[in-house]
Structures are given as structure tokens and as C-alpha cells.
Amino acid sequence: MEAQIGIEGNETADKLAKEAAQDDENQNIVFDRIPIRSVASEINRKVLEQWQRQWNNTEKGAVCRSFFLKLEQRLKMKMPITPEFTALVTGHGNIKSYLHRLKLADDPTCPCKEGQQTSEHIIFECNIVEAQRSSLIKQIMVRK
Q1: Residue 109's beta-bridge partner residues?
Q2: pTM of whole model > 0.70?
Q3: pLDDT in tens, the chain (144 residues)
Q4: In the chain, domain spans
């Protein structure tokens, strides 16, 4: 240490180091480094929680919400989002009940004659698309 005597910068550094070592406030400082991945994961979790609350509380999009109750599960799905898919799960598009509601179709009845042609009917009940439904169910079960 004596080699630093007389050198102004070194003396100042020594003085500051001694003060910091004796300062009680600085004794309790703990320096943690949080990985950026952890920070990003926490932000994503908080955003998803907020989005889910909004999703649960909105009065719009009831048909779509009935298919996707949990946004996290929907986000994990690997499925292409086409305009036809969006029209079906939102209850819009070329669906007779929707067109009838807009007074663009005379009758909301499905061509299968088993009820109104709604998104739910097409996806869960309509016998016209039974083969496609069965194929889709098999594909979903294989991917689980």
C-alpha cells in the first residue's frame, strides 16, 4: 500500500474503498443477476394472465371463447389459422345462422336438416361433415 502514497488517484481510491467497507448501509447490499430469459418468462406470464382475465370478462366472442377456454392452451396448439377457420370459430362467414341473422339467408337450417347451421353444430353435430370430424379427432388424439 505504501507504494501508492503520494499518488492522488490511488489515495482517493483507497479512501473510498475504506469508507465503503465501513459503511453499514453497503454491508447489506446483495447483487443478484437474473437471467434475461427469466425476466422475459415472468413478463410473458403476467401478460398472459392479464389477457386471460380480459378474455374471461369480455362479452364479445362467445363462440370463439367456447372453443378456446384457456388462451395458454390455444397458444401451444400448432394449427394454421386460415380465414375459414377464423370465420368458423367466430361464428361469422358463410354459416347459415349468421347469414340469416344478417337477413342474407331466408333460413338458418343446416343442409343436414338436424338443426340450425351454427359453428357448434358444424363442428360437433352435423352428419354431413362426420368423416372430416372423425379424421380431425384422430389427428388430435395422435398429437397428444
Answers
A1: 116
A2: no
A3: 455 555 566 677 777 677 766 655 555 555 567 788 888 999 999 999 999 999 999 888 887 888 788 888 888 877 778 888 888 888 888 899 999 999 999 999 999 999 999 988 988 889 999 998 888 777 766 655
A4: 8-57, 62-144
